[in-house]
Every structure is written in C-alpha cells, then in structure tokens.
Design goal:
This is S-adenosylmethionine carrier 1. Keywords: Chloroplast, Membrane, Plastid, Repeat, S-adenosyl-L-methionine, Transit peptide, Transmembrane, Transmembrane helix, Transport. It is a multi-pass membrane protein. Pfam families: Mito_carr. It is a single chain. By secondary structure, this protein is mostly helical. The chain has one domain: Mitochondrial carrier domain (Mitochondrial carrier fold, Alpha/alpha barrel), CATH 1.50.40.10. The chain contains ten helices and no strands. Helix 4 (133-163) crosses helix 6 and helix 6 runs antiparallel to helix 7 (225-242). It starts with a helix and ends in a 12-residue tail after the last helix.
Length: 324
C-alpha cells in the first residue's frame, strides 16, 4: 500500500500544481478581457442585455454629445474644405451652424452604436478564443456602425447642408430636402457613408481595444482616465487619416443636392481625380485628424468614465460578481 500511496501523492501534487498554474493563466486571461470591457463585462453571471443596452445608451449618448459640442467648429471647417471645388475660399463664419439639429441625431446615434457594440462584443469574445479578440472588436464595431447609420446618415446630410450654407435651420433642411429630393434625399450618400464608417468604426474600436489590452497587461493595473484618453486620441487620429479619402467622397455625394454632379461613388472618385487631381482626395485631412484625434480622446475618456460610474451604481445583488 505504501508505494501505491506514494504514487497517488505524487500524482495529486502534480495535479494540484497543474491546477494552480491553469488557474493563474485563466485569471490572467480574465484580467486581459476585463481591460477592454470595463463596464459591461464585469463577470455578470446572466447576460443582462437590457442593463448592457441601458448603460451603453447613457455612456454612448453622453460621450457623443460632449464630443460633438466641443469640436463642431473643426468639423465645420473640414466639411467646407472638402465641399469646396477647385480653389474655392473657405468662409469662417457660422462655425456652429446646425449644431442643435445635429445633436438631436448624435445623441440617439451614439447611444445606439454603443448599445449595439457592447453586447455584440461580449457575445463574440465568448465565442472566439483570445487570439481572435481583434476580430471580435472589428466585427462588433462594424455591426454597431451599421445600426447607427440609420440615424447618422440623415443627421449628417442635414448637418453638412447647413454647414455649407444651403439651409439656416434643421427643420427647414429636413422639409425642403424631403420635398425636393424625396425621402431618399435624407439618405444621400448612404453607400459612401457606409464605405467610410464601416471600416472607420471597425478599425478605430479595434485599435482602441487592442491597445488597452496590451497596455493593461504591461501595467498590470486598470487604466486611468488620462491613459484611456491618450489611447483614444491615437486610435482616432490614425483611423481618421486612413479614411480621409472615403470621407471626401462621402461629403461630395451628400452636399451635391438635386444637381447630381456625381452619378455614384466611382464616378465621384474619377471626377475628383480628373478635375482636381489625386491630392483632392486628401482635402481636410488636417482638420479631420485633429478633430477625430481630440474627439477620440474626449469620447473614450467620457465613455469609460461614464461606464465606470454606471457600474458603481448597479444594485447590490450584482456586486458579488466583482469579487469572483
């Protein structure tokens, strides 16, 4: 019995050692996952979609409104630069033209985006292994962008028409666009909008989430607000620069009105290159990178702060999960 007992002890000690090692690896993986889902993935036992949706709506809406209000003048200058054909001059008056109407669309669009992004991200992270987390973030960002586009596009059309001086109020813009161009006029440039925002949302959120994962793993602690803001600024500026040509095409198609200067995306590209040269596809890249870089800093900083605040105000029954 002695040798048999010794064999069992040795094997059990090996199993215990293996379990401890596995538990450490699992804890490390869990910590890594938590770093890019600080609010909505706090080890909730049931998948509470309504709570995630509610928190996403509040956090996303708050972040979207703060960013849009702070950086609207830069966005207006960018739009006027892109809309100007040839050597047209840029008017610097009325830089807040259309802000009120735009906020009416930004609030629900941002809320819808984050409300769709968070639960989609969590589901995909549970389905895919750790080495495919980037794919989960890319996909969730794209899905959120498509959902939000239903609100974003009409908002963007009205905003840019007002920024370029075609209308003086959001209500007049909606009424006149619908009467002259039909309901589809409010979705002018929808294809180019998706062409821009589909990769933009996917790339920006993927870069942001992956940088947070790497930074938190290296620092071995939660990120603070300034660190989230810096990562958000880098992700936004880089993505903004990459997608500038798509933004120029989208702007031209949206502001052309009923004149139909361009027959579609490809015709728009060919016309711009032929009449203005390839550099015209990078019009407004400076203001765009500045705007989205600063915007990414503010957006993600406010987003994470709001998500953390909402997590702390959850009812007591869910607090035990934070100690798992």
């Amino acid at each position: 019995m002695g040798p048999f007992t010794l064999a069992i002890d040795t094997k059990s000690s090996s199993i215990v050692s293996s379990d401890v090692s596995n538990r450490k690896i699992q804890n490390l993986q869990l910590e890594t996952r938590k770093c890019f889902a600080s609010v909505s993935m706090e080890e909730e036992k049931p998948f509470n979609f309504l709570r995630i949706l509610f928190e996403g709506i509040i956090a996303g809406g708050t972040a979207g409104v703060v960013v849009e209000t702070a950086l609207y003048p830069i966005d207006t200058i960018k739009t006027r630069l892109q809309a100007a054909r040839g050597g047209g001059k840029i008017v610097l008056k009325g830089l807040y033209s259309g802000l009120a109407g735009n906020l009416a669309g930004v609030l629900p669009a941002s809320a819808l985006f984050v409300g769709v992004y968070e639960p989609t991200k969590q589901k995909l992270l549970k389905l895919f292994p750790e080495n495919l987390s980037a794919f989960a973030h890319l996909t969730a960002g794209a899905v959120g962008g498509i959902a939000a586009s239903l609100i974003r596009v009409p908002t963007e059309v009205v905003k840019q028409r007002m920024q370029t001086g075609q209308f003086t109020s959001a209500s007049d813009a909606v009424r006149l666009i619908a009467s002259k161009e039909g309901f589809k006029g409010l979705y002018a440039g929808y294809g180019s909008f998706l062409l821009r925002d589909f990769p933009f949302d996917a790339i920006q959120f993927c870069i942001y989430e992956q940088l947070r994962i790497g930074y938190k793993a290296a620092a071995r602690r939660d990120l603070n607000d300034p660190e989230n803001a810096i990562i958000g600024a880098f992700a936004g500026a880089l993505t903004g620069a990459i997608t500038t040509p798509l933004d120029v095409i989208k702007t031209r198609l949206m502001v052309q009105g009923s004149g139909n200067q361009y027959k579609g995306i490809f015709d728009c590209v060919q016309t711009i290159v032929r009449e203005e040269g390839p550099p015209a596809l990078l019009k407004g890249i400076g203001p765009r990178v500045l705007w989205i870089g600063i915007g990414g800093s503010i957006f993600f900083g406010v987003l994470e702060s709001t998500k953390r605040f909402l997590a702390q105000t959850r009812p007591p029954p869910s607090q035990h999960s934070k100690h798992d």
